Amino acid sequence: MAMSREDNVPTILSRAVYNLRLSVRCPERVPTWDVILLTAASPQQAALYQWHLDRAKQRGTISQSALALAVPDPDGIRIGSGGATLHALRAIVQNIFGVESLLENSSLTQASDSQKFQSMKVLLVHAGGDSKRVPWANPIGKAFLPLPSLVTDDTNSEGYSLFDYILAVSSYVPQGFGKQGGLFLMTGDVLPCYDFSHFSSPNDGVCIVVVPAPSDVAANHGVVLTSPAEMCGETFQQVIDLLQKPSYESLMARGALSANNTVLLDSGIFSVRGKAWENLIKLSIEDPDPVLMLLEQKQEVSFYEEIAAAWVPSQHEWLSNRPLGRKLLDALSFHCLISYCAHNLTFLHFGTSMEVLSHITSYFGGKTTFCRSNLDMGDSHVVRASSGSVIASDITGTVHVGDQSLIYNCTLKDGVHIGRRCIILGIDSESLTTVQGGGLSLVVPDQHCLWEVPLIDSNSRVTLCCSIQDNPKVSIHELGKFCGKQWEDVFNHLGVGGDDLWLQTISSKERNLWNASLFPVVSAGKGIIFAMWLMGLLPDHDNLVSEWRTCKRMSLAELHGFIDFQKLHEEFKTRKGKISLQLADASIKCGSLHQDLSNLCMEILEGLDAGKDACEDLLTLYLNPKFDAFKVPQSRTYQAGADLYCALGDVENAAAFERKAWDAVAKETAIAVEPSGGIYAMHFSHVFQRRRVKVELPARVDFAGGWSDTPPWSLEQLGTVLNMAILLEGCAPIGVELEVTGGTGVCIADDAGHHICIKDPAMLHPPYEHADPFRLVKSALVVTGLASSTNLLCTGISIKTWANVPRGSGLGTSSILAAAVVRAIYQAIGADDASEKVSSAVLLLEQLMGTGGGWQDQVGALYPGIKCTSGSPGNSLSLKVEPVSLCPQTRRELEKRLIIFFTGQVRLAHNVLRTVVRRYLQRDPVLISSIKNLVSLANYGREALESGHLNEFGRILLDVWLIHQELDPFCSNEDVDRIFKHVHAYSQGYKLVGAGGGGFGLLIANDEESALIVKEVLTGLSVRVYGWSISE
């Protein structure tokens, strides 16, 4: 059965990434992790992981306030996932309370009892150890497998790692913990695609997440046996036994099969809270240290077996005879393990190379991202199948990449040919020229992995290869394979024997790929040649085989202890810095300025020793051509300059260029509205045709697409907005009355009691004070040309305005009031007051006022009913307004289920608008993709309304609200969050209207009965619910 948009993996992960970014940027509203722990196999691997964690803080996927630690097994000695958990928790105390606390048991006890420690929300990800089935990932850590981004479609974004997505899906959990602390434990090679905003766990106890799955997969996983109960819904059940990779017969005998022949798989996800959390902490800091006991006894403890068994009474007898068994029982057996069944969880296990490629192809799609091949200079080209992925690589010339292949952190030159379903990591094909004089190009056959690592205390490297289907654990006698061939065929083809690969002391069971001394320690280029030979691509091998025999060689098993992770890290940073410099340089030279120069300069400064000099060269290049040489609007040109100056620490020039960027936005908007150049076009000879005019307009509520109507986006990109004109309490709430008087000048009054009379028309012109309550009417007089006409020298006018809605409503009041004033002036002088003309004038008016703003507010009120409006970029702004037709039943249902209310808080769009517009001017790829998503959601929303699917329409509103918070995390606040939390269970979706920050909100209730409950809940929160109707 095909998944709905609601349940599919990309949608779930995209939402999770948005929630993660929101929690990191605004933790006071959306709680985030206090501590993030990664277990590592060795100090060297931990150092690499720590770099990843520090970089995650820099990239905004871990909060700056969080303690993020990579904790290695002591001295690189394996202690199991349970031992690693206890060791990592002890490391928290060491980092927070100091090393000396670990030396005094009384201090440790005091620390564990402290409220600060118990209230900490801790995420622990098991990422240590070597992966035998994904050996190419060991140098980077399997948790940091590169994956394309689902949040941005920008080809020059770096993408995300598996760990980033793990952070994303887990980002909902701290919110569910509330003010209480706890541990949330996950594994680094599994991505559980699930909306964890639905997850709950006992406040005091231990919970394991289980997933229903067909019985035939149980043989490779842990299975959880729960107490007899109805196996439906997402409910808690007590765990009565843990079965490790059971057979079908065992499942039958134990009653682990449900009526539909499914079992409950152990997901590897645990939540530990309350007293159980406290007990686990106390165990980790006991004296003597339990981990030291494991080291002395040379034993390991698994979290998923030994520690979990302490919470399952049926396992206690078995546990008592296991390492640390009695200690685990004494400390942890007070609680029983509870299961939480996540029925819709999609379990992505990155356990083999084939699984990695399959998941990338199925759920992430092929992309070429953050590569030199994306330059506009024409010197690089990737011939890539649509499902291939090339990430963070320097590509020069023509490089062929086959279907479903993954290329990461490579430098590939002209002539390289990568087959289908290949994985290439850390390879520099240019090194071949140093050993072959350019006569040999890198070729990788279908379904092969090729990777390279530097070694500690050596200038040599090791280049490794295997097939994606190879299982390094399978021995030669069990028909194990290397590069897709059985070992006998490998020996015959290469002219080598088993004694070349394995010492005679190695048992037949251990004679497998994992322990085979295949890979020479040589220079990079020579290593590639040997790898091509091992893959069967160099048949004339007589010289190679003799040379291979004389080389020092390494196996996959021994490699981990010799990898120079620091050099690997430095090389990765340097390659990223070089690619960033190339991208920035090409962006300036070709005149497109389409790159986010601010972000690229950060990568250049971090990755290159001469990073500052490189950024200065970029600034010189930028300043050299005249501005008209750039193929972009001046607003973008000036912002690029501001970003370059800012990267170099020149605050004064950066501020000056940013001011020029904002001035340019206003000018570009004026030209788009009045392309002929007659900005305030009007026949000044016009006299007033009507002595009195009254204009009343409805309010508007926006459903989706907001921000895509705002300059400069709307001048350069497609914009689409779905909104509705409404009456509140039966009335059009916004209006103006214009009256021609006998005197001269202009008298202005509003419903707040402000009043002014201006005799000199010159005083109507800008600049305006920010606090001037009359600048809207003054600007309307300017853009209509009336302020510059001779009329006001001999005739006076009085203009009264009102808005019968709370201040800061978010209903587009300011823009709609401006539209009412403009229309009243046009009617008074007998000019064309068509909605399209009025809308354009308001767009110009708001730039003149300095508030900015787009076209959706005035369009929402000027055109009746629900409509989907699209703006086409070009030399002049053109709008297409299409009514949305509702069948009578859908309209009645909408009127009963859509609730409009005032939060009681005032909002101001101006500050939010500046934040969003600046990010667009910088070409922030996440913002650009977010607004494109809003445009798509506007179209989805229209389809949902016209087809009568109000539940889906409600979920669309939730997606819109999530993206609005990505654009500006302060568009909501704790009071608004509290309101939405109270009504969440009764609604399909909700959002604040407009830019957010306060004002009005809207909500789609689950049904008519829920709508009544929501109104009662809101009233109980002192939130006013408004009666509304569609304005036709």
Which helices and strands, and how do they pair?
Elements lengths: L8 H17 L9 E6 L2 H17 L7 E6 L7 H18 L7 H9 L1 H4 L2 E6 L19 E2 L12 E2 H9 L2 H5 L4 E6 L2 E4 L11 E10 L7 E5 L9 E9 L3 H7 L7 E12 H11 L5 H8 L5 H7 L6 H5 L4 H8 L4 E5 L4 E4 L3 H12 L3 E2 L10 E5 L4 E3 L2 E2 L1 E5 L4 E3 L2 E2 L4 E2 L4 E3 L7 H4 L6 E2 L3 E7 L6 E7 L13 E2 L2 E2 H8 L3 H4 L17 E4 L1 H11 L7 H9 L2 E2 L1 H4 L5 H25 L7 H11 L3 H13 L10 H14 L3 H23 L18 E6 L1 E6 L8 H4 L2 E10 L5 E8 L3 E6 L4 E4 L16 H9 L7 H4 L1 E8 L9 H17 L5 H15 L6 H7 L3 E7 L5 E6 L4 H10 E5 L6 H13 L3 H22 L3 H18 L6 H10 L3 E6 L7 E6 L2 H13 L3 E3 L1 E3 L2
Parallel strand pairs: 1-2, 1-3, 3-6, 8-12, 14-16, 15-18, 16-19, 17-20, 18-21, 19-22, 21-23, 22-24, 34-36
Antiparallel strand pairs: 4-5, 6-11, 7-13, 8-11, 9-10, 10-12, 24-25, 25-28, 26-27, 28-29, 30-33, 31-32, 32-37, 32-43, 33-36, 34-35, 37-38, 39-41, 39-42, 40-41
GO molecular function: ATP binding; fucokinase activity
Family: Belongs to the GHMP kinase family.
Keywords: ATP-binding, Kinase, Nucleotide-binding, Transferase
